[in-house]
Design goal:
By secondary structure, the chain is α/β, with parallel strands linked by helices. 32% of the residues lie in helices and 20% in strands. It has two domains: 316 residues, FAD/NAD(P)-binding domain; 160 residues, D-Amino Acid Oxidase, Chain A, domain 2 (2-Layer Sandwich), CATH 3.30.9. A hairpin with a 4-residue loop joins strand 11 and strand 12. It is globular.
């Protein structure tokens, strides 16, 4: 039986009636949120609209030239097609982005800014379907990517709605509460000490959704498969039966990327670090605020057992988010009263008994996760234990830590590519999100300068492999110091 021709449409024209009302409500709420931020922080910029920004050249060249790096190549079945890539945009140019996370949305904003047609396909049924995590550190690379890809007025909103802080860590000993010894401190030092921000992830994602209309982001679109046509264009099929066609496909669908599994299943293997993390939020009492440097990043180090607690700074800008959350009808808590933290250790320390499995950890309720964090830190000093005793259990969650090898293998470029965790998943070290933003900036630059086609993707992947590999290496070094992370040679492939 042939395909239903009514399901085979261009990405910008298929039927959206089932979700139109919900999308209009979410779009109205996002616009209300951003308008309020602009008014609250005194920025007088243009009104929001859904029109593409004027096309203009990028403000700077790429920051990484990259190297081809030896013979670790991988033969993708999609890279041997013979066709001539397009060096100019025409009526049929269209970028298909699978995944509406921070990397995919930053890519979308950059394409919109430079007049390149695109559609983001997000599997969630609506923008607010799930909570969007905790705080995220935006380093200099992330700052430059947002500055390049966002419109000037929305970048101004980012600057005014996030907190700026000095990079670096304050190290504490878990048992004594005093300063950690120098040999316990992470030796990696960044040579960039400016433009470092702490942003609420939900706030950042809302900002990246701003100005995207219903033709530019589609919800309820779970990726199923893709097919590269003889002319190099890409046909994508979704679980709901819809089929769309575009010039290129960008997999921005995260750590367990379905696009990656079909495209280069042997080139980017997800590795189990045999480690885990508990994420939480804690009410910021006067006692906690007086003990901790709440406006800088604090790392609490335990040597027996080896594990670390990392607390992100509570920046002053958060004091304005209570009114923001109320106006936006957000489910976020009273953010100026909370501090975000992550407790990281090898998997064995999360096991309540010998029979505990990874699946048992994943199936824990938030309250059970909160209780586990209390049990694991019962021998820590009272002032630090207050972080766990005062936590909000409903925000507690357990995550398995995965990574990829820093040896990012090569494959023949085609009209399919990957960005973010889909191609360089990293252990927690404040780098992964920024690398995804850098990917988005680099890919937009290559598309704009070289045309939406294979040559642009080849140049992007050439550069990405260098800085992506560096990011993975830094995160592995941090993990080794923080919670005795094993080497990649001792890790097993994740089965999913």
């Amino acid at each position: 039986m042939g395909r239903n021709r009514h399901h085979h449409t261009r990405a910008t024209h298929y039927d959206q009636r089932q979700t139109r009302d919900a999308n209009e409500y979410d779009e109205s709420k996002r616009r209300k949120m951003i308008r309020w931020i602009r008014l609250r922080f005194g920025y007088q910029g243009p009104e929001l609209d859904s029109r593409p920004h004027d096309r203009s050249s990028l403000s700077k060249s790429g920051r990484s030239s990259g190297r081809s790096g030896g013979n670790n190549s991988f033969a993708s079945p999609y890279g041997s097609l013979q066709y001539t890539p397009s060096y100019r945009m025409d009526y049929h140019t269209h970028v298909l982005i699978v995944g509406g996370g921070i990397g995919g949305l930053c890519l979308a904003q950059g394409l919109k800014k430079h007049g390149i047609p695109f559609t983001v396909f997000e599997r969630d049924p609506s923008p607010n379907y799930r909570t969007q995590g905790y705080r995220v550190r935006i380093n200099h690379d992330g700052y430059e990517a947002l500055k390049t890809n966002l419109s000037p007025e929305n970048f101004e909103v980012f600057l005014r709605a996030t907190g700026h802080f000095q990079p670096g860590f304050k190290y504490l000993d878990a048992e004594t509460g005093g300063d950690a010894p120098p040999n316990a401190q992470f030796s990696h030092k960044s040579n960039v000490t400016k433009n470092v921000f702490s942003a609420d992830r939900a706030m950042l994602r809302s900002l990246l959704l701003t100005d995207l209309n219903e033709d530019e982001i589609q919800y309820g679109m779970s990726f199923k498969s893709f097919h590269v046509l003889p002319n190099g264009r890409v046909e994508v099929t979704f679980e709901n039966g819809k089929i769309v066609e575009g010039s290129v496909l960008v997999g921005a669908d995260g750590t367990t990327s379905r696009v990656r599994r079909q495209y280069v299943p042997g080139a980017a293997t997800l590795l189990d670090t045999d480690s885990g993390a508990i994420y939480g939020k804690t009410l910021l009492t006067p006692e906690i605020e007086s003990f901790f440097e709440t406006e800088s990043t604090t790392m609490v180090i335990s040597k027996d057992p080896v594990m670390s607690l990392v607390m992100e700074p509570r920046c002053k800008i958060q004091a304005d988010l209570k009114e923001f959350a109320a106006i936006s009808n957000s489910e976020l808590p009273d953010l100026q009263n909370y501090i975000c933290w992550v407790l990281i250790a090898r998997a064995q320390y999360f096991h309540r008994n010998e029979d505990t499995t990874v699946q048992d950890l994943f199936s824990m309720t938030p309250t059970e996760v909160a209780n586990l964090s209390n049990d694991m830190t019962r021998d820590w000093c009272p002032q630090i234990r207050a972080i766990f005793e005062n936590q909000s259990p409903e925000w507690s969650s357990f995550l398995r830590i995965s990574t990829m090898s820093p040896d990012i293998r090569h494959w023949q470029p085609s009209t399919v590519t990957l960005i973010g965790d889909a191609v360089h998943t990293m252990a927690p070290a404040g780098i992964g999100c920024n690398t995804a933003l850098h990917d988005a900036e680099m890919l937009v630059k290559c598309f704009y300068e070289m045309g939406v086609g294979v040559d642009a993707i080849a140049q992007y992947e050439h550069n990405m492999r260098q800085y992506g590999s560096e990011g993975i290496t830094i995160s592995l070094d941090a993990g080794k110091m923080m919670y005795n992370l094993p080497g990649v040679e001792d890790m097993r492939a994740v089965v999913y």
